[in-house]
Design brief:
This protein is an alpha+beta fold. It is built from nine helices and 26 strands.
């Protein structure tokens, strides 16, 4: 029989061939795309729009868990443009990262971080609860871990506590993706190179898209990083169209598509944070539409007690961390109250322990007159005043106490859900049900909300373009896709 004639696969229609290719694992799909031009066209039609795949494993073996999630996300066609992995604190960060990067190839940007909890859509379950979310699912597998579980004396804890991984792999045609670090010099004064970081982001975006502001940024910051200052600079330098979200993960490792900017093991720099930057591709093929990032936030906090104003601020540097001591007075009353008096009044009135302290930093006369965001921390009181583990508080700053409220949390989440369900062609997201998804629990949330969300804490309209760190609540990312006309 002559080549290209007669029976066999040559008789398959393009629709049938696409159906076959769509069922192949990622590696077999990649090989099939190299068979011929017609197969390449059929393979391109299978992956013609963005795709996110995620998987979770609670297997106590690090190597087995990584292999399980990799097998799951690569069980269907996908070309990895980026990967995000989040693990429990008892998994080796370096080993996990090495296993993932070896499998996905050395030009795929990968960020691996430690998380306080993980979640993924529950499409299938096996012995150790491994799930893949390539299909839309309404069920989830979730693991929440405490930050101090390594020191726990609770012998009733499950044997796989703090052992698990969630992996997100994305294919985003029409966008270029790379990991860009925020560096800090190892020599005195050890100042983070924030201006350089912002310029690196702008230069990368300009190089691939012709625009200095990227489409989206996913940030991972260390717990000691001055993320408030970083986000302030990003707000100023980047377009309001740039979606920004992420979290303080504590520890992370990364690999960029261009290995020359990796600095792990460097004697010259530390890495305070890393950004996964998504920029439009000026050289995208014909027939590829537009991908847009949508970010929203929700909260479950309500204010309790009166508004106070800060007096007698003192910043204390204990080498390992800085804290702020201060007294306060109730708004409209001149009597200065110490920390014990303030907390006792709140506890006596509301019978709530572990209240959350939040200060609203108001804009200056040269800035817009909306609250810049909730800065919050757990607090304790003594004879010297309130003590909080944040800096930057000034005399005259107003603050209130907050406590969790289930009705507020439900209302806030429902509002976010309804807003996102109005979007068309949703192709995936982080922390959002109803689409391929995954999510993490972290020490602080980073979010620049680009929907006109209502602030359910203060009952005021939240700035749609202010990027800030949130300490309680959730930040959501959904990607939507508009096909070409």
């Amino acid at each position: 029989m002559e080549r290209g004639k007669g029976g066999g696969v040559g008789l398959l229609s393009e629709d049938v061939l696409q159906d076959i290719l769509s069922r192949l694992p990622a590696l077999s799909y990649a090989s099939a795309a190299c068979v011929s031009r017609s197969w390449r066209r059929a393979a391109a039609a299978v992956l013609s729009r963005p795709k996110l795949a995620s998987a979770i494993s609670l297997n106590p073996s690090c190597q087995d868990a990584v292999e399980e999630v990799l097998d799951s996300v690569l069980s269907r066609p996908i070309r990895p443009h980026f990967a995000i992995a989040c693990v429990g604190i008892k998994f080796s960060l370096e080993r996990t990262h090495k296993l993932i990067t070896k499998k996905l190839g050395y030009i795929t940007p990968v960020i691996t971080s430690v998380a306080r909890g993980i979640i993924s859509g529950d499409a299938m379950c096996e012995e150790f609860t491994i799930t893949g979310s390539d299909a839309i699912s309404e069920e989830f597998t979730e693991a929440n871990w405490s930050s101090d579980s390594e020191d726990s004396d609770d012998f009733d804890l499950p044997t796989n506590r703090d052992q698990g991984i969630v992996l997100i792999v994305g294919f985003i045609p029409g966008l270029k993706v790379d990991a860009i670090p925020l560096l800090r010099g190892t020599q005195e004064p050890c100042i983070p190179l924030i201006d350089k970081f912002v310029m690196d982001v702008r230069h990368y975006s300009a190089a691939v898209s012709g625009c200095t502001s990227p489409t989206g940024i996913v940030m991972f910051g260390g717990t000691g990083a001055d993320m408030e200052h970083v986000l302030e600079e990003m707000d100023y330098a980047l377009s309001r169209e740039t979606a920004i979200l992420g979290g303080r993960s504590g520890r992370f490792v990364y690999r960029s598509g261009d290995g020359s900017i990796n600095i792990r093991g460097s004697l010259k720099y530390y890495c305070d944070a890393v950004a996964l930057v998504f920029a439009r591709d000026n050289e995208k093929p014909q027939g590829v539409g537009e991908t847009k990032f949508h970010v929203a936030s929700s909260t479950g906090l309500v204010p309790v007690g009166p508004t106070h104003k800060v007096v007698s601020v003192k910043v204390v540097d204990n080498m390992s961390e800085c804290s702020t001591w201060f007294n306060a007075r109730k708004e409209g009353i001149n009597v200065v109250l110490d920390g014990h008096r303030i907390l006792n009044d709140i506890y006596d009135e509301y019978k709530k322990m572990g209240m959350l302290l939040g200060t609203y930093s108001l804009g200056s006369q040269n800035e817009e007159s909306f609250p810049l965001g909730l800065r919050s921390a757990w607090c304790r009181g003594n004879e010297k005043g309130l003590i909080v583990n944040v800096v930057g508080i000034k005399n005259g700053d107003p603050f209130r106490f907050y406590c969790s409220d289930a009705d507020t949390a439900l209302s806030s989440c429902n509002w976010v859900s309804e807003e996102f369900r109005n979007l068309k062609q949703v192709c995936g997201g982080i922390n959002f049900p109803g689409v391929p998804l995954a999510g993490i629990r972290c020490a602080g949330l980073i979010g620049r909300v680009n929907l006109s969300t209502a602030n359910h804490v203060a009952g005021q309209e939240e700035s749609a373009h202010r990027c800030c760190v949130r300490y309680h609540g959730s930040v959501y990312l959904v990607m939507s896709y508009t096909p070409p006309l």
